[in-house]
């Protein structure tokens, strides 16, 4: 049989190194000790490898399965995963995604949050679903340390670089993962409407009875859970299995059929007198669990930026290898402007997310960085997570029909993108958090605005006038909170791009985002900006 055609003009797989080929990451990592650079290069090589890409595909096509009962009818309540998922978990755990921010730092080592964020960013561009338990496990220690006795027992196993998927008693394992159960059917984000009851049994031990509408990562070894104790809503550490290896009264009803994040299981659960250990004081549950949630919000922003970068890398690679109308697609004026316009947002999102990670590293010793962490966490999460879905959708369009198929990673990135805006505080929750900080500590924003103004130079006074007017409006009009969040995020992103020395890129961001006219799609930059130069600066040509 004679073939009807020869395959031509198809783009080779994207290869290279996600760290070494990213000028912005290299700049952010400047001055880092050689050992840290080698680890990032290892991650960068891995996420671009055919092996890792295949693991990501399999983990999402062969989705988790809930086994509620064994073959004899006994409750089992176990989630089964494809080996590809466990391989991803093992790699990311080994690279410190659950442990590194809690490890003692040697002199000269990279700061914990920023160091981890760079690795997390690259891994998000590979496969984001498995990073959900990575995030919760790492962040859980912020809440667990409120109970020193529990921390002594649990922290060494949580802050571990060993991944153990076995279903056995927590204290028999060298590495643990932690999930979360906050929301219920009747309340959702309004967790104070929770009805799960916690009955005190003595010391910090309680029995929990109730349900959770979203129970994240049900294969975890324990969960941080909110429940109503005698003195109000409280936070509890609830093991999945008891010390004897038997079930701890947690029954999983079903797994959620989610749009994306499909490699990671999310469940509905019932608690039947499950044993829980109180974290913090009774009635302080929201405050206690927010110690965890604040860290997960940072990861949401970093992961969204990573998804943007990975999607655009695919689009740029495609355009540079695809021939259309007698030339290379990337040389066409309209295409290069679309790609460059997307690159501006991807760079700004990356710079802003990494700036927040830097603030987390220094909040304990620097008053300004503490203010930045407190005031900008909701702002950064709001904007970075909002801008990701439309940008990734545009990147998908650059590949045409190929991009819309599951054979190419952008389809997975696109389905993944909305979750970071929804989980751990939706857009409205983030905007309202901004208002709460504004009312409680307005001096935090005074410090931040002063810093933004210095980095914006001649553009500073006009930008600060706009922001001051927006803050004045927000003090009396709660409905304007999103306007304030977006304007502050844009100003902070522009300031960070200038601080990093990205002059022409920062100019383009300011002119088209901060001071530009309303825009609803990409490709709106005009001939004042050298689109090809902007694109090449952020996405160098293939080696």
Report what the structure shows:
By secondary structure, the protein is an alpha+beta fold. 51% of the residues lie in helices and 13% in strands. The strands form three sheets. A five-stranded mixed barrel has the order 3-5-9-7-6. The chain has a two-stranded antiparallel sheet with strand order 1-2. A two-stranded antiparallel sheet has the order 10-11. The relative contact order is 0.10. The model has no long low-confidence stretch (mean pLDDT 95).
Task: Give keywords.
543 residues; alpha+beta; two-stranded antiparallel ribbon; globular; five-stranded mixed β-barrel; 18 helices
Rg over C-alpha atoms, rounded to the nearest angstrom: 24 Å
What is the overall shape? Answer: globular
Largest sheet: 5 strands, mixed, barrel
Can you give the mean pLDDT? 95
What percent of residues are in strands?
Answer: 5-15%
Question: Strand tally, please?
Answer: 11
The secondary structure category is alpha+beta
Poorly predicted tracts of residues: none
- The helicity comes to 40-55%
Lateral strand order in the biggest sheet: 3-5-9-7-6
Structure annotation, total helices? 18
Tell me the quaternary state. Answer: single chain
Order of helices and strands: HHHEEHHHHEEEEEEEHEEHHHHHHHHHH
Q: Could you give a short description of this structure?
A:
The protein is an alpha+beta fold. It has helices at 23-28, 34-47, 50-61, 83-94, 112-124, 131-144, 148-158, 285-321, 333-362, 367-398, 409-416, 419-422, 427-440, 442-456, 460-474, 481-499, 503-514, 531-538; strands at 65-69, 75-80, 178-181, 197-202, 205-216, 222-229, 232-239, 250-255, 266-279, 323-324, 327-328. The strands form three sheets. The protein has a five-stranded mixed barrel. Strands 1-2 form a two-stranded antiparallel ribbon. The protein has a two-stranded antiparallel ribbon with strand order 10-11.
